[in-house]
Write a structure and sequence with these properties.
This protein has about 80 residues and is α+β, with helices and mostly antiparallel strands. The chain has two helices and five strands. The strands form two sheets. A three-stranded antiparallel beta sheet has the order 1-4-5, with no helix packed on it. A two-stranded antiparallel ribbon has the order 2-3. Strand 2 and strand 3 form a beta hairpin. The chain starts with a strand and ends with a helix.
Length: about 80
């Protein structure tokens, strides 16, 4: 288990969890977003570095955009 701290003043999600990518307000060492569920199962050794987490997020966003574009193209082809 790793200790996480709620960093939100409003209660609204700030970032995506470094493991499951669910939106969360909890942070590990004020550097890496990690939801309470994942924090309860993770070990300190499991935690990515800040650079690794940022890179994973960037890749995940690129994949999401790419899949969204492919879905739009396939939907337009189907409708034609």
């Amino acid at each position: 288990m790793v200790e996480v701290i709620n960093e939100s003043k409003t209660g609204e999600p700030i970032e995506n969890c470094c493991f499951c990518r669910r939106e969360t307000t909890f942070w590990y060492q004020k550097q890496i977003a990690c939801c309470k569920d994942c924090a309860s199962r993770a070990n300190k050794e499991d935690m990515p570095t800040k650079a690794q987490w940022i890179r994973r997020e960037r890749i995940a966003q690129i994949i999401f955009v790419s899949e969204s574009i492919n879905f739009s193209v396939k939907t337009k082809e189907y409708l034609l």
